[in-house]
Amino acid sequence: MNDTLQSWLKGELQSLRDQNLYKVPRILNSPAGGRVQMDGREVINLSSNNYLGLANDPRVRQAAEEAIERWGVGAGAVRWIGGTMEVHDELERKLAEFKHVDSVLVFTGGFTANSGCIPAVVTKDDVIISDELNHASIIDGVRLSAASYKKSDGWVYAHKDMDALEDCLKRAQGFKKRMIITDGVFSMDGDIAPLPEIVALAEQYDAFVMVDDAHASGVLGKNGAGTASHFGLYGRVDIQLGTLSKALGVIGGYIAGSHELKDWLINRGRPYLFSTAHPPMVAAALIKALEIMQTDPTPMERLWANARRWKAMLNEAGFDTMGSETPITPVYVGDEGAAQRMERMLWDEGVYALAIVYPTVGLGKARIRTMPNATHTEEDLDQALKAFVKVRDQLGAVR
């Protein structure tokens, strides 16, 4: 190993430790759920995206097992070379029906869907106008494009500020295409984008809209169809990104839109072109999970009942949940060191809830990010709240 590289890595890692920004993943010893075995002990898991509990649903597991028997464990190629099986095509058709769009193209992940779609639909003659709190995968997809996008040039608008967005659109009229991109649900604060206002401004100024619905999928809208459904904006959002890795409980991401958009991404979406297709049991499991979402309202009802209860308990106890509107429920701390200590102390109390620090959020805006899901019991949430209150009182650094 090169000594210069090793010396640099050690120095940078120590710098992260000194700033309380160093992360070490814990290891699950059980299936995902509200209570899990992790690093050899039982804890209440408040840091999972498994919103509806489908990651270990027996119906989804059975679908995956049956697909292995029929299709094997791998597709053997990238999609366009010969890795597209009937089960992949069926999944895309069912997702298109679910989203009320013409077509869907599935990618191996939500991150790759953003990095594949965004650079493919804009050129050096175009501009991307982006909310300042958009997810890292949006930011990286934007950076891969040839379009104008930089904050220093005025193309990043203040969070959910529609006057600022309109100012961007007015200044952008000289570009060939104008793309507005926003999260549907913002992943660190849990608030919802003002999508009706964004769409209205886009139509007024001849722009098109892309919405990343990773944290709205399975959470908002009819049967969890996302923010376009939530606001009744069918047919008015040009590009929708959805995830298959959170509420649906498996892995992947997709782009939903027109037939032409799908065809273009098949030909120019680089992660699609150069990534091996999902194993067939993944696609089969997703088809079953999607069917459950559309026919069984119970998991979504439990999710929202738990989310409302958890927020009310935290707020009554005096915690700042930062105006969250969705199951994503941040508990504001501020100081990075205090947030890291709080995470460790909660762990000691049997609660796994991650500290979110810079660069995921701004410096001085650290929080404990909690995620109640459909599998939590009232006992789980009651026990978790007692732990939060005890740790806060001991730490003395959380308002």
How helix-rich are the residues, as a percent range?
A: 40-55%
The secondary structure category is: alpha/beta
Name of the CATH homologous superfamily of the largest domain: Type I PLP-dependent aspartate aminotransferase-like (Major domain)
Distance between the termini: 47 Å
CATH architecture title of the largest domain: 3-Layer(aba) Sandwich
Count of structural domains: 2
The largest β sheet comes out as:
7 strands, mixed
CATH T-level fold name of the largest domain: Aspartate Aminotransferase, domain 2
- Number of DSSP strands? 13
Describe this structure in words.
It is a single chain. The protein is α/β, with parallel strands linked by helices and 399 residues long. Helix 8 (195-204) links the parallel strand 6 and strand 7 (208-212). Helix 2 (58-71) runs antiparallel to helix 12, helix 4 (86-99) packs parallel to helix 12 (280-295) and helix 5 packs across helix 10 (259-268). The chain has two domains: 22-51 and 297-395, Aspartate Aminotransferase, domain 1, CATH 3.90.1150.10; 58-295, Aspartate Aminotransferase, domain 2, CATH 3.40.640.10. The mean pLDDT is 95. Helix content is 43%, strand content 15%. The chain has helices spanning 3-18, 58-71, 79-83, 86-99, 110-121, 136-143, 162-171, 195-204, 227-230, 259-268, 270-273, 280-295, 298-316, 336-348, 378-395, and strands spanning 35-38, 41-45, 103-107, 127-131, 156-157, 178-183, 208-212, 239-243, 253-257, 329-334, 351-352, 354-356, 366-370. The longest helix is centred in the C-terminal third of the chain and has 19 residues, at 298-316. A seven-stranded mixed sheet has the order 3-9-8-7-6-4-5, with helices on both faces. It has a three-stranded mixed sheet with strand order 1-2-11. It has a three-stranded antiparallel sheet with strand order 10-13-12, with helices on one face.
